[in-house]
Specification:
This protein has helices spanning about 10-20, 40-50, 75-95, 125-140, 160-170, 190-200, 220-230, 260-265, 270-280, and strands at about 1-5, 25-30, 55-60, 95-105, 145-150, 155, 175-180, 180-185, 185, 205-210, 215, 235-240. By secondary structure, it is an alpha/beta fold. Helix 3 (about 75-95) packs parallel to helix 4 (about 125-140) and helix 5 (about 160-170) packs across helix 7. The longest helix has 22 residues, at about 75-95. The radius of gyration is 18 Å and the shape is globular.
């Protein structure tokens, strides 16, 4: 019987971990958010992990407001870089495993073929730099660390691109969406399921990439969202990145190569449009 700590339990991924937990009754769960456990408090983390005899930590907590991060550097660094180090240290003392969720933003997006785990990182935003530092800190302090980089996360929980595009599609007659940034949407429930497989396989250490299968632009993603949601009254037009300036630079191309995680965990990953249909039908 493993004791599993899930941090950031009120976020998109944390909530999906909670939804799926009933399918894995062999574990004892500790779902925490900042009210139950402040992961920026090193002593609180150590005490919690020891007292509850935690065997595996899944860190779903992060500072994810990409544009606000350009101003809130200190808070972003605390949550994305320093806190994973505290979790890793506490895990190492216990002999526990850590799953650290990371991001495609660790790359600068200049590739034109999918990014493998072995490729050089080069983040060009505060968010990307702090998430990369968090990966490095976690791996340095706990040898049983599995880093899973993901991208374009959405779910039925919290605020995300899918919900925003459905709302705007119903409110507006016209919408401009960027077409020259290419990646792959990830349904948080699919990622949560993969994490449970990783836990069952004793958390293989190293860096892994996970998103849904296929590729699209934000423009394509929006068109698919509207089609599936039955929104026909909003005209979506393609925008160049420079037509929609943001404080933080986004990677132009951040498709992730998922070969390693598929082979290691022996999983099949759903196509992005199929998962989008599942999520919208729940919404």
């Amino acid at each position: 019987m493993k004791n599993i700590l899930i941090t950031g339990a009120n976020g998109q991924l944390g909530n999906e971990m909670r939804v799926l937990s009933s399918e894995y009754p062999e574990y004892i769960y500790f779902f925490t958010d900042v009210q139950e456990l402040d992961i920026c408090d090193e002593q609180a983390v150590i005490d919690f992990v020891q007292k509850n005899e935690i065997d595996c930590i899944v860190n779903c907590a992060a500072y994810t407001a990409v544009d606000k991060a350009e101003e809130n550097v200190e808070l972003c660094d605390k949550l994305n870089h320093i806190a994973p180090g505290y979790l890793a240290k506490a895990a190492a003392v216990r002999g526990a495993a850590l799953i650290q969720v990371s991001t495609d933003y660790v790359f600068d997006g200049t590739n034109h073929i999918p990014y493998r785990e072995t490729e050089s990182t080069c983040p060009n935003s505060v968010y990307g730099r702090t998430k990369l530092a968090g990966e490095q800190e976690a791996a340095r302090l706990c040898e049983r660390t599995m880093i899973i980089r993901t991208a374009w996360l959405y779910s039925t929980f919290g605020n995300n691109f899918v919900k925003t595009m459905i709302r705007l599609g119903r409110e507006k007659e016209q919408l401009g969406v960027i077409f020259d940034q290419i990646g792959t949407p990830t349904y948080a429930r699919d990622l949560a399921r993969a994490i449970y497989v990783a836990i069952a396989k004793d958390v293989p250490a190293g860096i892994y990439h996970f998103s849904n299968e296929g590729v699209c632009s934000w423009f394509d993603f929006t068109r698919a969202i509207h089609r599936i949601a039955g929104i026909t009254t909003c005209h979506v037009r393609p925008l160049h990145t420079e037509e929609y300036p943001t404080p933080a630079a986004r990677p132009h191309y951040s498709v992730l190569d998922k070969t390693k995680i598929k082979e290691t965990l022996n999983i099949e990953i759903p196509y992005w449009e199929d998962s989008l249909e599942t999520c919208i039908s729940e919404l």
